[in-house]
Each structure stands twice: as C-alpha cells, then as structure tokens.
What does this fold into?
Amino acid sequence: MIAVRVVLFVVLALVALSPPAIAQDTFPSRPITIVAPFPPGGVADLTARPVAAAMEKALKSPVGVVNKTGAAGAVGMQSVAVAKPDGYTLLLALSSISIIPEADKIFDRKPAFTVDQFAPIALISADPTVLVVPADKPWKTAKDFIEDARNRPGQISYSSSGIYGTLHMAMELLSHAAGIKLRHVPHAGAGPALTAILGGHVDALASGPAVVLPHIKAGKLRALAGWGDKRVAALPDVPTFKELGYPDAEFYIWAGLFAPKATPEPVLSKLRATVREAVNDPDFKTAMDKIETPIAFKQGEEFQRFFDADARRLAAGVRKVGRIETK
Amino acid sequence: MLTVDRVAGAGLAVFALVVLWQSRVLPLGSLANPGPAYMPVALAMLLLIGGLAIAVLGRDAPALRSLGFDEWRHAVAIFAACAFAALALERLGYRLTIFLALLFLLGVVERKRPVVAVVFALAFAAGTYLLFDTLLRVPLPRGPFGL
Amino acid sequence: MLETLHNLAVGFSVALSPPVLLYAFVGCVIGTLVGVLPGVGPLAGISLLLPATFGMDATRAIVMLAGIYYGAMYGGSTTSILMRIPGEAASVMTCIDGYAMARKGRAGAALAIAAVGSYVAGSASVIGLMLLAPPLAAFALRFGPPEYFALLLFGLLVLAYMSSGSMLKSLAMAALGLLLGMIGIDQMSGYFRFAYGVVELGDGLGVVPVAVGLFGLAEILATAGQAVPPKVIEPRLRELLPSRAEWRDAAAPIGRGTVLGFLVGIIPGSAHIISSFVSYALEKKLSKRPEEFGHGAVAGVAGPESANNSATSGAFVPMLALGVPSGPIPAVMLAAMMVHGVSPGPLLIRQQPELFWGFIASMYVGNLVLLILNLPLVGLFVNLLRVPYPYLYPAILTFSILGVYAVNGSVVDVWIMLAMGVLGYILRKLGFETAPIVLGVVLAPMIELALRQSLAMSDGHYAIFFQRPIAAALLAVGLGMMLLSLRSFIRRGLDWRARMALAEKGES
It folds into this structure.
C-alpha cells in the first residue's frame, strides 16, 4: 500500500515538475486564461464562465477563468493591458472599461490603462439597465418620477455600485437627458446598492435587469423604464427612455471579450471565430438563459461602432459629472 | 534617556504628521459634507495627540537599551527570504521560488544538513503546488520551463 | 410548528440521501483545509470551487458550497490556536487567548472547546435560521447607513475593552489601524487615497494580509532567532481534553457568543469579523477574572469561536429569506443559485422548499460532521507542535505566502503582509498590542462610508441619526455603555485611593 502511494506521489511529482510539451505552431497550445476583473458572483464572472466553457468546447483546449478584483475592475483590466500579447490572456470587460480611464483623467492621475491598449474580440451581452423604485413609492410611471424630480431637485435619492461606476453613470445620463437633479448615495458594489433599495433606504436604483427580476416578480420593486434601445425581453411592459423622449439616456452593462492590443492578427481571428462558434453553442445559450442575460453578439465593425459610441457617451457623461465638489 | 515609550510615541507622532502632510492634496470638505481628507485628518490628529501623550508619559518605561534584539539577524534573514519570495514569485514561478527560499532558510539560516534542506525544500515546493494548484485549482504562478 | 417539523423531515430526507451527504462531507473537508490555510478564507474557497459545481444539481452544489463556508470557520481556529496565525480574518481574536492556552500546554483543550463551541453555535443558529428567517430578515433590512454607523461605533467601543495593557497605547494602535484602513479609493468621491499609483491598493490593504502579517509573520520574526526555542509544554494524552473547570468556564461564553454572532451576522454587510471582536470584548467585560484575558482565558476562545460560527448562519438569513446579497459570500451563493437555475428572491422558501429545507438539514448534518472530524484530529494537530521550530516556521511561512497570494493572485498582498510583519515585530518589541490595528483596518472604511452615506441621504443633516429609531436606540445604548465605563473608571480611581489609605492605616 505504502509502495503504491510512494510511486503515485513520485509519478505525480514528475508530471507536476516536467516542462510543458514543445509549443506547436497551432494556437492554442496552452490553457487560455480569461481574466474577470470583478469578484465572483458578479455579472462579469457569471458571463465569463459560460463563455470559457463554450470556448473550451470549440477549441478542444482548456480555457479557465481567473478573478482579479480590485479598484472597481481597474486591477484586472490593467493586468491584461500589460500582459504578454500572445493570445493566452484575455479580458472579459464590462462597460466600465471606458469609464475608468476617463475618471483617472479627471483626477489628474496617470490612467491605470487606456482603452486603446486592448483589441476587441467580441461583444457577448449587452443588458440595458432599468430604473427600479420600491413598490410602495407613489411613482407609477417614469413620467411621474421625472416630474417629481423636477419639482423637488436633489430630494430623490438613488444608490449605486460606487462613484463613476456603471450604475452611477446610467443615472447621470438620465439626469442630464431629462434635466433633473437627484441625490446620489454611493455604495460599495452592486450587492449593497440592491440591499439599500430593498430596505427602503434610497428611492431609486439603476440596475441590470437580471438581479432585480425576482424582486419585481415578488412585488417588492417596480420597474419604471429601461435605458436600452429596445424593451427588456423579460419586462415587456416597461418602456424605454428612448420611447419616452430621452434618446440620450442609453446605457448598457455590456460584457465583451478583449485581448491585449499587440496580439498577432491570426491569433485574434482564431479567437473571434471561436467566440462566434461558442455563442451558438446550445449549452452556452442555456447557461445564459439561466442567469437571465440575453446574448447580444457583435463582432468586427459592428462591435467597434457600438464600443466607440458607448465610450463617447460615457466619456462625455464622466466629464459632465466632473469632480464632486465639496464645499 | 531614551525609553521605549518615548521612542514609540515619537514614532507614532511623526507618522501622524506625515499623514497630515500627505492629506493636503485631498479636499477636506465640511462637517455636513466631509471630503476624502476629513477622516484621515481627524484620525491623524488623534494619533498625534496619542503619540505625544505616550512619549510624554513615557518617563517610567524601560530603557530602549534594555530591549533584547538578539534575534535581529535571524529576523533580517527571514525577512530577506520572504522579500526574495515576493520578488521572484511571479518571475520564477511558485515552485522554483519556494524551493530556493526554503533552501536558504533551512540551509543557511538554520544550518541544517544540505541533504535535509534540499529534501525538505523540494518536498514542500512540489507538495504544496500539487495540493493547491493541481488538486484545489488555486492558480499559482508558473515561471520559465513551466515551473 | 407542525408544518415546520414536517418540512424539516422532508429536508432531512434530502440531506441524508447519500449523494447530498457526500457533497456536504466534501464541502466540509475542503472548507476545513481552506480554513486551516492562513489567508485563504471561505470566500476564496467558494469562488475557486464554484465552477466545479456547474454540472451538479442545485441542492448538492449549494450544500457543498455552504459546507466549505462553515468548514472554513471550524478550520480557522486550528492555526490560530497552534501557531498564532489567523486562518481567516474572523479568527484573529482566537489567536490571542488560544495561542496563550497552547503555550501553557492546553492546546488540546483550546482546540476542543473551539470545536464544540462552533458545533453548538452552528446548530443553534441553524435553528434560528429555520424558525425566524423571514421576520429576522425583514428586521435586518431596516439597517441602512445610519444604523450601520451606530452599530460600527459600538465596534469602536469594543477597542477599549480589547486591551490588557495600557489603554492609551491600545487607543493609539486603534487610531493607527483606522488610518491604515483609509488607504484606497474613497467610495464617495472617487479619489485614490494614499495609494501612490499602486492600483492594487485601490480596495485598501486588505484584512487578510494585515492579519497574517501582524500576527503570523511578526510571531515568526520574533521567535525564530531566539537562542532558547519557544518552550511549549507538551500535554500528556490525558490532558488533551478540557478539564471540568474549563468546560464550566466555556459554557456561558458559548451561549452568549452564539446569540451575539447570530444577531450580528444577520445584518447585511461584512459584519462577520466584528462578531468575534465584540464577543471577545463582551466576555472580558462579563468575566470575573478579566486579567486572564490575553493570557489564556477559556472564555476568550469559546466566545469568539462560537460567535463567528453562528454569524455564518446569520449571514444566510437575508440571503435565503429575501434574496438579498448580505455580504460577499452570500452574494457568491446567490450567484451559484442563479447559475443553477434557482431564482433567489423573497419567494425562494415557498417556491423551492426542498432546496431551503434540504439546505437547513444539511447544515445540521454538516456541523455534526465537522465536530466528528475535528475532535479526533485534536490529538494529531497538537502533535504538530512537537515539530522542531526550525522546521516548523519555514513551513508556516510557505503556507502564509501561499495563502495570502492565493486570495487575489496578487504579489502586492504578499508585500503588504511583509510590511505588516515588520511593523508587528517592532510594535511587539515596543510593548504594543496589535489586535486593535486589525479591527481598525476592518472598521475604518465601513464607518467612514456609513457616516458619509447617511449624510448624503439626509443632505448634510446630522439629525438623521436621531430620527431613525434603530440608529437612535443603538447610539443611546452606546452612550450609556460609555458613561457606565467612565463611572467605573472614576470609581476605580477613588477605590484605589481608599485602598491606599487603608494600607497606610494598616501599616502604621
């Protein structure tokens, strides 16, 4: 018995210590790592894992997810921006990738990374945020809400996942589009922001639809309007701000796959083709269904246009917010 | 006479002053709307007062010279090994770094027999890697040669 | 009541079915391993194993992940007691008296008390979870920023009770810890404070590198080079288990720790660590022999260990009853549920009774499994102390570096641990206590955020703290406690003078 264990240990040790097989010409010859810059359980993480699983099936080569959290995503994003551009380190970024460099600029900081340090591979999902209020509040429609906000500037409070975060920027875009002033109460992440509104401590929240759906269905929250181009599939009765006459209030919490800019073109094409295949995988579709995130696949020119437009909107929004003045 | 408390109190007071100086770039805000500098400044002032109090009241504390620092060489060596590990962890990879660090600690610092040091270091580096990276799937950095 | 029992029966039938039992067991084992490893706490353990659960049935996955969670709480006490290294942040308080007990040869007793206390707390709090989940959750949700601020102020008061030495020195250490907690992004304004361009410091120093460095590394730096290796009294087999006196001393603290931990745990937020700190202070205040604390008081191990175990069940209350992510770990569990197609939310208990009751039942089972796992291992663990220190500490260092690195895959964390180790070493030499620093690092960002959020909510009016009933009540109680302790302070001073007078009279 002991002898077997010793042999097993020695064999395993040799396997563990041996150098990898000589790199072949074909990519990929090593496991690929997708960096998710947010803690586990968040949107980035929940999207990254099905993507990794589907890509692994398509490539027949391991693809893993690593969480590198910190500084609202800046740590993980920076790590990929400076990673070796060989195609083995990828980033699953959320829309905050456009916000963080702008925020750094406002504070006269050297940006942790810039958007042009990345080469886009594909857009995976693009959830528009929705405006939710506690069910016991008097506003039944978005119009009620906006009118009330106009009559009482700075009195209606909303929570967010953090200053210059995605949920904050969504509200800011609305505020500027509708000409209203709201009171911002930042929280340390999307979870606490949701807890705050469920406890009735704030009056409103801009949130990704997936996490608030169960609460809307249970009657604790009411959705007033969405920031998307189209209505959210799971909330067909909720109009978009575009419909209500505020086309500038467009915001998506989107998730996209990126690689370091200098990754060679053939590797990039292979990755793009893989993602295209992965997105059509039935297991992937079921996984995304389970987390109630519709797939919004865009690539190439389409993705670039979407990304640029979104980045422009957000940059303008961040600049308008500016530094919070403390009297 | 330099007592323990005087040195400690002075050290804390100096640190508090450094914090106050570094906070000058942050807006202070007001009582109704505290800015990012508000709490650090308040705490630094408390620490300043505390440090000064400790220093002033520290006349009856044991003298600085009476502190035993016999183990400082050991401590420095251990620190050096850890610092090396931190520097090399992502460059040389986990296994190689831990192997070298343990070799140093056991062979040089603790002066154990070379064979013992090598076996221990090897077993630990490989064993912990096996347990955590392979079995528990905690990603540990790999260096050159996939080590 | 009858319905609850019926549901519980259903739950047990689910929990005791072999596959579910197996997963609970696996979760507990992995959790214990994760907890024993310094640094890597339950959050890291759960996140690492989350992808492995994707192919499984929802109940089994949740049961396994929960097993990891409270298994880690059991395991965390082991390294705290044996080597003064916190297995995870919540075990920091156990390091103080647990290690002192180990030095006196009572390591086995400490480990046993910790295990039994954790079992009692775990099981009792599961009962609380089962019976009181919905109403408790509704109460917990009413804790907004002002209530949170009042509660955390309580935590600050705790600092005053934690010291066994000079109060002035402890307060200075608390201020230092609070200052260190200011490093990072300011959530209210977006400024990077004291980070000097290092992006990884954006979320602050992190309690894990600070705790492992201040306690573990500092301990090694201070003792490794001693000419005479640290004398650990080796217990005989008979002395491995706690004596009757020790059990008696542990009983009440376990009870108090359970209730306290559960109540603190249900409040959304990372109040977990605070539960063990507050329990320690409470036990010290209530003890007839407070001078024992810091030198091996049984209550100093029993209370905090029970508190942090029942806080785990408490954390599940808002999560299961209302679908509220009440902290980073429940958030991951909620995500795990979503991935498996279970929609978390207020209707979870009604819509998925097998999941809820199976989960509850598996927690009973899991706690029992952990007790059975841990008690016999006490003898094994104590033998670890016999390993000669020159071999032991390099091993501890390896695990510490591994653990601290693994939390976030970041070398910056290792550097923080090193810096804190040096700081802890110097502070020990100069006669300062380091526990208040850890509490300060944990509390500072939370208190500041809660205060500024409350002011944002009220547009700058401090009256909000008195207009909200829970916050006002907490503040009143805190003020009362402070006044009481001031009174005893003054009385002690008068007493001392009276005693001096008596002594002089006696001598003359």
User: Anything to note?
Assistant: The two ends of chain B are 54 Å apart (CA to CA). Helices of chain B lie at 4-22, 38-56, 72-92, 94-109, 114-135.
